[in-house]
Amino acid sequence: MGQENAPIGVVLAGGRGRRIGGGKATVELHGRPLLSYPVEVLRAALGEVAVVAKADTELPPLPDVPIWIEPDEPRHPLAGIVHALAAAEERPVLVAAGDLPFLTAELVGRLARADAHGRPAVVPRAGGRLQPLLARYERAAAAPLAAALRRPDGALTDAVEALAPKVVEVADERAFFNVNLPEDLLTAAALMDRPDDRASR
């Protein structure tokens, strides 16, 4: 895969984090900002990573990580993906939500290397559901996703399904565990405290 076709890792951090009390990117899990987990995994797997955020998003220190500021409105995950595709200047992007502490470089690499067969996106499916917030988007996805964003009822999964993406089946759902609520932080910390997880970190 040539450098011009290699995806750039992009972590989406533009959400308000209301359900966790705000500041989701900086909330700590095991002594580290939550955002640092997907940032480090994408950097390890792809070599390049950027963060998409709103101008008012509170971010932890992220040395050597470009911050791509998306428009203030709308506040929608599609906005982050569309902005990432524009900022990547014709390169594909492999996006990950900023609240995925169990993301693995192995899975990121699998999505990065998957043959899209000419389709505009490579999207995993786990637990019977598409996972559009951990997916690879080609430049061809930009226009249809931007159009979906302009519709008042534009749901993320519906917009991505309409791309007819290449679907990659993923058996282990754990990589898609996301932190939305304070109790999710407790669950994530408990999972990380298991002996097998401590050995792998």
Automatic annotation (TrEMBL):
Span of domain MobA-like NTP transferase: 9-148
Chemical reaction(s) catalysed: Mo-molybdopterin + GTP + H(+) = Mo-molybdopterin guanine dinucleotide + diphosphate
Residues that bind GTP: 12-14, 24, 99
GO biological process: Mo-molybdopterin cofactor biosynthetic process
Pfam family, one: NTP_transf_3
Assigned EC number: 2.7.7.77
Top EC group: transferase
Residues bound to Mg(2+): 99
Cellular compartments annotated: Cytoplasm
Cofactors, names only: Mg(2+)
Gene Ontology CC terms, in alphabetical order: cytoplasm
Record InterPro entries: MobA-like_NTP_Trfase (IPR025877), Molybde_CF_guanTrfase (IPR013482), Nucleotide-diphossugar_trans (IPR029044)
CDD domains: MobA (cd02503)
PANTHER family referenced in this protein's UniProt entry, alphabetically: MOLYBDENUM COFACTOR GUANYLYLTRANSFERASE
HAMAP family linked to this entry: MobA
Family designation: Belongs to the MobA family.
Function: Transfers a GMP moiety from GTP to Mo-molybdopterin (Mo-MPT) cofactor (Moco or molybdenum cofactor) to form Mo-molybdopterin guanine dinucleotide (Mo-MGD) cofactor.
Protein name: Probable molybdenum cofactor guanylyltransferase
Gene source species: Conexibacter arvalis
Taxon lineage: Bacteria, Bacillati, Actinomycetota, Thermoleophilia, Solirubrobacterales
Recorded name of the encoding gene: mobA
